[in-house]
Design goal:
alpha+beta, Lipocalin, eight-stranded antiparallel barrel, globular
Length: 147
């Protein structure tokens, strides 16, 4: 029994280290889909194109892109993100680019959960202390255009 104990300890250590790293590798990359916003008199639209790029560092930097395609309005936000298990926690910190003729973009906070059955990230977003809508993102292939 004493001879097998060190091997067992090494195996447990490898499993503990590889678990979070494996989730991180699965979730890094470029994701795109949509963001919804409730119908109110302040909203320019209820459905926006939305994309997110996650790097592999922890905490990761991220970049999100939001657009109203029919109006050619867009905003690019810089964020901090943290990947844990099958979730991504994102806090947008500043708007780095934008084109919008009226209205404004929110700096958002959101938690996205990975759903391996359809390879999506999904969750709710909030801004200014209120929950505002939903985000659904699909993984982009390695050969698709980066944000």
């Amino acid at each position: 029994m004493l001879k097998t104990a060190p091997i067992f300890r090494c195996l447990v250590l490898v499993l503990l280290i590889s678990g979070p790293l494996a989730a991180q590798n699965v979730l890094t990359g470029t994701w795109s889909g949509w963001l919804t916003q409730p119908d109110d008199h302040f909203a320019l639209s209820n459905l926006y194109s939305f994309g997110l790029t996650l790097t592999g560092d922890q905490p990761t930097t991220s970049r999100s892109h939001i657009a109203i395609d029919s109006l050619s309005f867009y905003g690019v936000m810089e964020s901090y993100a943290f990947i844990k298990d099958q979730q991504v926690f994102v806090h947008e910190t500043r708007i780095t680019e934008q084109h919008i003729e009226w209205g404004y973009w929110y700096l958002k906070e959101y938690t996205l959960t990975y759903h391996p059955e359809d390879d999506t990230l999904r969750g709710r977003w909030k801004a200014a202390g209120r929950e505002r809508g939903e985000i659904v993102l699909f993984r982009q292939s390695r050969f698709s255009h980066e944000l």
